[in-house]
Amino acid sequence: MLTGNGAEEGEEGADSTSEGAGARPGGRRAGRERRVRPTSSWFAVGFGIGLGLTLAFVALQTVLHIRGLLTLLLLALFVAISLEPVVGWLARRRIGRGWAVVVVIAGLLVVLAGFLALVIPPVSKEVSALADAVPKWVQQLHDRHSLLGRLENRYHLVAKLREQLGAGGGSAVLGGLLGAGHIVLSAVTGTGLVIVLTVYFMAGMEHLKRFAYRFVPLSRRAKVIGVTEEILWRVGRYMLGNAVTSAIAGLATFLWCVALDVPYAAALGVFVALMDMVPVVGSTIGGLVVSLVALSVSFPVALATAGFYVGFRLAEDYLIMPKAMSYAVNVHPIVTVVAVVIGGALLGVVGALIAIPVAAGIGIVLDEAVFPRIDAL
After folding, report:
1. Average pLDDT over residues 154-181
2. 41: which DSSP letter?
3. Euclidean distance between CA atoms 44 and 108, whole angstroms
4. How far is CA 372 from CA 191, 233, 349, in A?
5. In whole angstroms, what is the distance from residue 98 CA to residue 239 CA?
6. What's the whole-number average pLDDT of the chain?
């Protein structure tokens, strides 16, 4: 027999059971409501795309604006990498890396000073001769029996020159002089900046490499270090071999000019040695300049000089260069020509200079990392 309390307990149990039964569907609905993902609006997507394009445009404009500085930075890094075998060899002789860098930089400064000592006196002599010849030319302009006097009498060169200067030609001449001065100042400043950056890169090369390697995952770091060291080693060896062939070209030019009494033999030898470091086109430009200077002696001497450089270029390409580069880089001639053309089009002389080492580095990466992975598939 049920009492009132039992009835109340039964009702409470039924109520709790009904609440429990109704709580489960409600719990599922609450869970589904918590898992609802907010949808992105078209405005947010468009804003993100526009911001990304704007940042990319600003970055591109910044790179284009400072491309000259980036080129000098790349050149300094390339020179430091090229001198790394010499610095490393000296550092292993227990003199320390800092002193090794000092010795190498001192040697480079001695070479630069020697080049200036060879070039400045002939240039100064020619400028002095030009300054001394100007009064004589002015005197000949007023002498009707001289060639300049007859030209002046027929074409009135002085009057036309004064007219051009009065009509704004003076500002053009002044602008040309200022432009030439700006080019000289930029060249001197750029050379100084490259020297300073090269010193810093050479002194901190080991720290710079360790910092760069930290961006590589530890599981692949050893392989990346091995490939990078191989590339740096080959670049250094290539530049040393290139320096040897350039020195041979400069010495051959000096001996040829001395034998045929071509003026400025030492300066032309150093010039050809520097130009010969630029692949494919450097030796050709150097030979053309020397042939033009040889015209001051005679036309047969200039013709013989041109023939000498054609023969020397063939000997350099098929005898000297293969011997010097056999232990450094192994790049196919077609790849060499294409790399030099592309590098020259992108970065001028600097691009042509670093084109072959970059092509060799890309070849090492393909042989060590890309092709083995493709063959394993």
Report:
1. 57
2. P
3. 58
4. 42, 22, 35
5. 22
6. 75
> Confidence class of residue 172 from pLDDT cuts 50, 70 and 90?
low
**Is 135 a residue whose pLDDT tops 80?**
no
Q: What angle do CA 367, 368, 374 make, to 5 degrees?
A: 70
Two structure tokens written together for 192: 């100084």
Q: With contact defined as beta carbons under 8 Å apart, do 249 and 226 qualify?
A: no
Q: Residue 240's closest CA among 210, 215, 277?
A: 277
Nearest-angstrom CA–CA distance, 97 and 202: 9
Q: How does pLDDT run across 219-271, given as a tens digit for each residue? A: 888 888 888 888 888 777 777 777 888 888 888 998 998 898 888 888 888 88
Separation CA 45–CA 240 (nearest Å): 54
Residue 120 corresponds to which amino acid? I
Average pLDDT over residues 316-343: 67
CB 286 within 8 A of CB 310: no
Cβ-based neighbours of 234, under 8 Å, separated by 6 or more: 328, 329, 357, 360, 361, 364
Amino acid at position 129, single letter: A
Which is it for the CA torsion 39, 44, 48, 53, positive or negative? positive
Tokens of 147: 């060639």
d(CA 107, CA 112): 9
Question: How far apart are the C-alpha atoms of 135 and 147, rounded to whole Å?
Answer: 15
- Helices and strands counted in the chain (H then E): 15, 0
| Consecutive H or E run containing 203 | helix 170-203
| SS3 state of residue 255 | helix
Query: What region, left, alpha or beta, does residue 329 occupy, with left being phi > 0 and alpha being psi -120 to 50 degrees?
Result: beta
* C-alpha distance from residue 271 to each of 46, 244, 290, 354 (Å): 58, 15, 9, 19
Radius of gyration of the chain (CA): 37
- In the numeric block, which tokens belong to residue 2? 């049920």
pLDDT tier for residue 182 given thresholds of 50, 70 and 90:
low
Amino acid at 88: G
Q: Are 333 and 325 in contact (CB under 8 A)?
A: no
| Type of residue found at 360 | A
376 backbone dihedrals φ, ψ, rounded to 5°: -75, -15
